Every structure is written in structure tokens, then in C-alpha cells.
Amino acid sequence: MSQHVLIIGAVALGPKTACRFKRLEPGSTVTMIDQNDCFSYGGCGIPYYVSGDVSEVKELRNTSFHMTRDVEFFRDVKGVDMQPRTRALSIDRENKRVLVQRLDSGEQEYLPYDKLVIATGSSPRKLPLPGADLPGVHMVSDLHDAEDIRAAVTKGEVSKAVIVGAGFIGLEMAEALADMWGVETTVVEITDQILPGLVSPSLAHMAQKHMEENGVEFLLGHTVQEIQGTERVTKVVSSAGELEADLVVMATGVVPGDALARECGLDCHERGGIVVDEEMRTTDPDIYAGGDCVVVKHLVTEQPFFLPLGSMSNRQGRVIGDNLAGRGKTFPGAVGSFVVKLFETSAAGTGLSLAAAKRAGFDAVSVFQIQLDRAHFYPTKELMTLELVVEKGTRRVLGIQGFAGTGDAMVGRINAVAALLPHKPTVDDLSNMELAYSPPFASAMDVLNSLGNVADNVLDGRNVGVMPDEFAECWESDQGECFFLDCREEADAGAYVERLEKWHNIPQGQLAQRLAEVPRDKRIMLICNTGARSYEAQITLMDQGFAEVFNLQGGMAGLKKWGLEL
């Protein structure tokens, strides 16, 4: 039996739901409304349009076969009645209708439905700052913001910019402005690291260092207090002082668009977001919701969480389209996978960071590994930095984060672990994980296998490590309590011994014969290139009764990426 499906919202989830449902029930009617004149676009591509990587804004609205997703496209190609500039004012669940307003005329009317889909997305989190409404201050919430920013920089009107927030959008916009256009860009972040809550301080510091090398400045642990200007923005007042600015981008996160759902009595989470079941159905059996306006189950913590990603919206849209046609499909939840490009590098992750795992109540520890992304003898290769988060008692893998180049190698490893996480894998599963091998693509002992082995040794107490940031703190504050022992050959370590009074060198192969040179009353900090030889040295020393022996995880490679100047 044909039915009328009404969809509120037409950016990502709405169009996917509409098109999937119409393929399954061509005889049914689908009406899709959106309050904006610009709809069905790739919002995640906005920073790349600003940077110039995407040459024209219409490319963000085009299909892969070069058709623009406009009203005519949805009507003629998809059989969907698309109505832009139409705002939903309220939902009348009892009479199954939605009160809407035509924004161009101001007229109001009711649109009936048999089934309703709420795809209202999210909106930028607005800070109550004086001057936040000045021209030149942007939220990057839609394509119009993108066009305004791109127009200003291409006309040469922007020489200095301030980004508020060091999450995904903030960092992507900082790269876009600094890289292509040479804009002096400063990022102000209230926490003490970039990508807060997503990666460890060590990985965050590595990513920050690389961005600083490309001209982006950071003010961490600071807030913006006021934005000043007359006809347009000219200055940002922060807790660190005043910053000149021709452009300000507010990237302080987003909030789920759940107002319509709350007002009509649907269950919503206390921290925001519509509550849905695994079929993406709300507490009203005739109303579905998905995308940036809902909360879903985190498959590691099994708690509700908010994850505004276009990829998840598209997957949920297909599930809703199926279920509107009675197919009973489910969306069980997500593990929170991400990747962000930062100039010639990228940061990626899935599951929980160490800080997030501890907040969730896990007795967790992280292990750190730097290894080549392919066979060491293959001519083209690069180092990949990975951090694995595991639960101590159960040995369960809780998450993984990484920092590497912009190729597919690291993202492939992150995605492999993402596929495992819903099944509660252990360290042993990672150690024995099967991955495709050939020297141009991987090592015979893949970096993921090696990372699992490191975690196995750490959990069993054989490998007691320190992270690069912990080592740096020891190095800079040391008053003679530590003995820094380089386990590399003299050719690698000699230059450090010559320059640094507290740097010592005993090659790992000679350590058993030279134990008398190692003090037993100090903390021993072991160093090699990546942490492998220093682990062997640690076994030797611990076997001989040395009490406080620590292996620098990631070795000198990690220190260099972290930025410690020895």
C-alpha cells in the first residue's frame, strides 16, 4: 500500500532516506523540506572548497555523474518532491501533520504524513561573545559561509585569521587558510591540546608541531573574550592578549537539532539528541530520526553518544529508507571512527582514547608504537605512529589512534581495528590479525601485529614504558635522578654523547657485559630508534635486578615527532 513520507531536513540523511525509500516503493510519495535554499551537499567538503582543493562550490552539490542535486533533479530523477525555503514549526503527532512556514511568502500550512523522518542535523555551538555577529565572523555552517570566506580570501581582504576551537573543523579551516592563501592563522583552544578527547597529549603535540611548522600558531588553554570591529571584525580579545584579525571562524563544536522532537514530546537525551532504537525509530512508531540530530549507542562503552559525521548520516539514511518500506534493518551503533588531514600528515582514530576510556570507567592503559608502514627494505616507506588503548584485566582493545602521512596506510589500519571493536577484540586478536602482505604494502610482521605484541608485553609487565611527553618532562626537570641510556650503536648515539653530559651509550648487544656501568640507584631511561632494542635492554636489566627501568615508547623517532630539542 502506498504511503506519504515527509522528511524534515535535506542535507545528508534526508536525501539518502528519500532516494532509498523511493527505489523500494516507487508508488509512494516522498516530500522533503528544508529551511535553506541550499540543500543536499557535502558539508564535510567545505574546508577543501575554502582551500581551493575543490575548485567550485557546485562540486559539493553535484553527484558523481555531474548532475546538480537541485529541485528538478529530485523531482525528475528521484521522484521526490523537494521544497526548499520551508521551515518546520511544529509536529502535530496526534493528527500526523507538520506545521510549516514558506519563508519567501511567510505563509503557514500543514503538511500531512503517514511516516515522518526528522533529519534536522546540527547547528554550530554559539558562544555568547560581544561582537560575534560582526561581518567577517563565520560559523562554517553551510555553503553560503563557505562562499563568503572563499570570496574574502581570494579578493585579498584577509591577511590574518583567528580560529576558535581546535577540533576537526577548526584544524581543517586553519590548514585551508594558511596553506593555499598564506593567511597568518592563529587557533585559540580552551583546553591544553588540539583534538581534545580524541587523541593523547603525545599524538596531539606531534600534530600541533607539524601544523606550526606550516605556519599555524596555537594558543592552548586560552579563551576568546570579545570580538571587536566597526564595519567588520578587526581584532579578537583573548585571555592571552589581543589578536589582529580580518576573519574569525567559530569552530567550537555543534549541538544536535532536536528542538522539534522535544517540543512534540519525543524522548531526547539529557545532553542533547533524539533517542532512537536500532531501527532508527523514535518513541513514536511513525517517526524516524537520524544523522546529526540523534544519539546512538557507542559499541565500546554501550552508552549513548553524539557523533556528527556525514558518513554515519548516509548509512543511517539507508536503514531508515529500508524500514519505511518494512524491511526491518538495524543500525546497532558506532565506535567513533575519524580521520583529519593536517597539511602533509593526518590524525586518525577509532574507539576510545586513553582519557576517554578512563572517563568511561575502564581500568585502561595505552601503548605506543612507531614502525615503518611497509617492509624496511622497500625503497618508499614512512614511519607510522600508533597508540593502542587496552583494558588491563580483560586485555580488551578499547581504541586506537594514529599520526602519519596522508596516504592510505594508517587509515587502513585504523579501519581494520574499527571493524573489530564491536566484537570486543583482545590484544591477542590484534597480535594474530591477518592482513594482506607484500613488501610494497606492509611488513611481514604488520605494524598492527607488532602493536598487539607490545601491548601483550606491557600488560604482562615485561615492557614498562614512558610516552614521549613523559620522557620530555623527565629530561627537562631531571636533577640527576635519571640515567639516560641510549641502546643504539655508537654511530647513532655518539653525537648525543658528545653534546649532552647526561646522555650515555651502551649498545644493546654489549649491555650484558657492561652492567657495572649502569647505576642501580637511579631511574634508567632506555632509548633506541623506535623502542625495540631498548625493550631488549629492559629485559636484560630487569633480569639482573634493576628496579626502575623504563623504555621510551616510540624511541628517538617519537621524540623527534613530538618536538623535544635535546
Automatic annotation (TrEMBL):
* A Pfam family assignment: Rhodanese
Q: Which UniProt keywords apply?
A: FAD, Flavoprotein, Oxidoreductase, Redox-active center
Stored SUPFAM superfamilies: FAD/NAD(P)-binding domain, FAD/NAD-linked reductases, dimerisation (C-terminal) domain, Rhodanese/Cell cycle control phosphatase
Rhodanese domain spans which residues? 478-561
In which domain of life is the source organism classified? Bacteria
PANTHER family in alphabetical order: NAD(P)H SULFUR OXIDOREDUCTASE (COA-DEPENDENT), PYRIDINE NUCLEOTIDE-DISULFIDE OXIDOREDUCTASE DOMAIN-CONTAINING
For this chain, the family text in UniProt reads: Belongs to the class-III pyridine nucleotide-disulfide oxidoreductase family.
Q: What is this protein called?
A: NADPH-dependent 2,4-dienoyl-CoA reductase, sulfur reductase
Q: Which organism is it from?
A: Paucidesulfovibrio gracilis DSM 16080
Q: What is the lineage of its organism?
A: Bacteria, Pseudomonadati, Thermodesulfobacteriota, Desulfovibrionia, Desulfovibrionales
